[in-house]
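Ticket #4471: structure export looks truncated?
Reporter: QA, pipeline team
Priority: medium

Steps to reproduce: submit the single chain below to the structure queue and open the exported record.
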Amino acid sequence: MKQHRTVGDLMTTAVVRVQPGTSFMEIARLLAEYDITAVPVVDSDERPVGVVSEADLLRKQAALPDPAGLLPAPHQPPADLAKARATTAEGLMTSPAVVARQEWTVVETARVMEAHRVKRLPVVDEAGRLTGVISRGDLLRVFMRRDRAIQEEIREDVLTRTLGLAPSSITVEVTDGHVVLSGTVERRSLLPVIMRLCRGVDGVVGVSDRLDYRIDDYRIDDHRDDHRIDDPSS
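Actual output as written to the record:
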């Protein structure tokens, strides 16, 4: 079966990075010049030790007094105050750096981003050295696949090679990443397997089931679903 695209396939390898001693103004310039929202901070061995984001830089602006004198001084936690007073990446960065591995799947990476509420992750190799950056936009590229490519992968890899089903037994229709399966399989127990494998194909947004079965091999009871073709009353 075709392998899912990994972080290593999707990441950007030309990475803008800074050193712990890089100044506030230089970091701000780099973010603007490269139109990015964060930069990894690396040590002398190219290992990420933290990340400086736009939010980290804005803390400094938020801590400044209001030029018009209309707003009260903001109350900030000690950690935020320390960042607001920092002038280099070492003091501004959020650390330790949350990183991704090249072999991670899109799902695994998206969950880490969501859990840590970040938009991009430094990617490291086995030695922990920076090799790239993966962003939310990079992950979304899997949904840019053509419907035809998704349809062919489900037909050839999922149904035929993996499950050993006859190509004519199931019709696969794909529209804007939504898959509709129709046809008949031999056993009821195949249905959840087919659905799970199809949902896991890169680019699939959703899967609809219009499948029937000939044999109810669950044997939960003697009653059959009304809409299935093996219903004795049909």
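Status: closed, not a bug. The export was complete when the record was re-opened. Leaving a note from the reviewer for reference: The longest strand covers residues 178-187.
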